Amino acid sequence: MFVDASIFPAGHVERARICIFGSGPAGMTLALSLAESGIDVLLVEGGGLEFDAESQALYQGTVVGDLYFGLDETRLRYFGGTSGHWGGACRPLDPQDFVARPGRPETGWPIGAEDLVPYLAGACEILEISTQFDDPAFAPGLVWQDFHFSPPVRFGDKYLSYCETAPNLRVCPSSSLVNMLPRNTGPAAIGTAEVVTEPGEVSEGDHVAWKVEAEIFVLCLGGIENSRTLAWINQQNGRRLIREHDLIGRYWMEHPATWIGEAILFDNAREILDQIAFLGPDWRDQGMELYLGLTAGKQDENALLNVRFLFLEQAYASTKQLVSELLCLAPTLGYKLASAFDRNLICGGRLEAMWEQTPDPANRVALGEKRDRLGIPQVELHWRVTDTDRKSIAASSLEFARLFAEHDLGRVRLVDWIDDETIPMPQNLRHPAHHHHMGGTRMSASPETGVVDADLRVHDLDNLYVGGSSVFPTSGYANPTLTIVQLSLRLADHLRTRLAV
Amino acid sequence: MNYLRDPRIMQLARRRRVRIGRRGFLGLGLAAILGAVWRGQALRPGRGRWVLRKDDV
Distances from the Cα of A323 to the Cαs of A83, A331, A332, A409, B33, in angstroms? Predict the structure, then answer.
């Protein structure tokens, strides 16, 4: 049921076994899964039930480094969280994403891909996609990457009526976490959370301040907000809660996007051509797009980060231009292509890359100087595409183009910066990245290298957990939502065991 | 008096027409440049290079 916290008397204390902050894909999945097991859950959401510009303004912040989206545009602060504007692309992380890979520092998860497999079916059911992910070999060294598309599920819309009647679940919208207080000395430090609720229709005037007492707290506030909140809580408690406090917010990652050139696909790749769709306003209805990548073996040979190449079919005239270029540069091939072009047997397209960003401690979520209207420091996001990223995407693109030619699937024309380090890599002004906020409270086996352990519990603290993509130690290239939901289902299992339910 | 044939009015109209024309022309040019930048065309560092096989040439 929904609880109007704006009518709570000052100093009111709400009690629950588990209190979850944030109602996006991570928080909502966790809350519903636990409530269905009979556990008393309090779900606290900072935003209201509908989008509200005033609440959204609490997400404002500054970006230091490369061009990035406005921090109040790249995520949503209302019931259902950022699922309110996500695109719906789903894919689990690759097995190699979980492994510490030679030549790629700071990679590796404390869990393996097999630890998330039991939760794939459940996550796919929530996101309304098929559970079958097949990555057929496209050619030696190349794989076709299978993405599925959620309708997309808007968690707020999908579960609104269910939350009204769900047993064991109370939802407090418009209520923001502002602090957590030590209950005891010692490691089990957090027992009470301080929350403020926006004044409602009944109660006018100031914010209503109240408290939550719970056995377990879980932060599911999003890939930026988890770090910000944890850093702020720790700061207010004299940095006593988390020993390695400097790690909070570090190793933040995105999926940078750039276009790497153009390609012509030959008749040899015809079975794949059939599955290419135009990207348009209704592209999701047109079927699959062509996503290609390098096999894990190829990545390991050259110590490359994981990558997704997207082939987007382009207009007839542009393909003709590519063929006419080849007529001059490579006449033998050019004549063959000119003939195939007349018979509509070849296809030209743009190649875009989206890749795994190297985990770099300099990319981080920090607390800025300015404060929001609740008195919490705004986010200062430090984000850059590093030299390692550039070298990896350049080497991956060259390898991809070489394999394409070697297996006679087509030919690729790469942009100049790929093999000339003196040319700066241009940022995609419209779409520098993919709005995928990962890292900041990374999962690690020890407190010296991360913020949460393999069970998503904050190191050094007994009853504070973190859910969502902020726990990713590496990002892979896959869109994170499916993995977020898998991790939440896994966390629900862990909490059920812990509470002996 | 035919107001429209008054030389002063005609001169003013001509001037205005010219001024509007220049502005329009500049506006169109600016829009084209911005459009090109927006499409990423103006930012392309070059034509790039083809990755070919020996038997292509």
Answer: 42, 10, 12, 15, 27
ipTM: 0.79
- Measured between beta carbons, which residues in chain B are less than 8 angstroms from residue A259? 40
- The CA distances from residue A498 to A120, A167, A491, A493, B57, in Å, are 22, 21, 10, 9, 67
Residues of B with CB under 8 A from a CB of A: 37-38, 40, 43-53, 55-57
Nearest CA in chain A to B53: A405
Written as one string, the DSSP assignment of A14-32 is EEEEEEEE--SHHHHHHHH
Question: Would you say A410 and A341 are in contact if contact means Cβ atoms under 8 Å apart?
Answer: no
Lookup: tokens for B44: 């392309």
- Residue-by-residue DSSP string for A447-493: TTT-SB-TTSBBTT-SSEEE-SGGG-SS--SS-SHHHHHHHHHHHHH
Helix (H) or strand (E) holding A334, with range, is helix A331-342
Task: Give the span between the Cα atoms of B15 and B12, in whole angstroms.
Answer: 5
Q: How close are the terminal C-alpha atoms of chain A, in Å?
A: 22
Evaluate whether A357 touches A475 at the Cβ level (below 8 Å): yes
How far is Cα A384 from Cα A272, in angstroms, rounded to an integer? 35
For residue A75, report the phi and psi dihedrals to the nearest 5 degrees.
-155, 170
Do the bridges between strand A169-172 and strand A41-44 make them parallel or antiparallel, or are there none, so unpaired? parallel
Is B50 close to A325, i.e. CB distance below 8 A?
yes
User: A158 in helix, strand or coil?
Assistant: helix
Q: Could you tell me how many CB contacts below 8 A there are between chain A and chain B?
A: 70
A106, burial (CB in 10 Å: exposed 0-12, middle 13-18, buried 19+): middle
Give pLDDT tens digits for A186-205: 445 468 888 888 876 555 56
Residue at A18: amino acid letter: I
Query: Among A405, A414, A430, whose Cβ lies nearest the Cβ of B48?
Result: A414
Instruction: State pLDDT tens for residues A163-192.
Output: 999 999 999 999 999 998 766 544 454 688
Tens of pLDDT, residue by residue over A311-330, are 887 777 788 888 988 998 99
Task: Enumerate residues 6+ apart whose C-beta is below 8 A from A452.
Answer: A441, A442, A443, A444, A458, A459, A465, A466, A471
CA torsion angle B17 B20 B24 B27 (round to 10): 160
Helix axes A155-165, A25-36, angle to 10 degrees: 30
Count CB-CB contacts under 10 A for residue A26: 34
Query: Which among A405, A417, A424 is the nearest to B53, CB-wise?
Result: A405
- State how far the Cα of A178 lies from the Cα of A207, in Å rounded to an integer: 12
Q: Is the torsion defined by CA of A307, A308, A312, A313 positive or negative?
A: positive
Amino acid letter for position A232: W
Alpha-carbon torsion A260, A266, A270, A276, what sign? positive
Tokens of A499: 């509470």
Contact A389, A254 (CB under 8 A): no
Strands A208-219 and A13-21: parallel
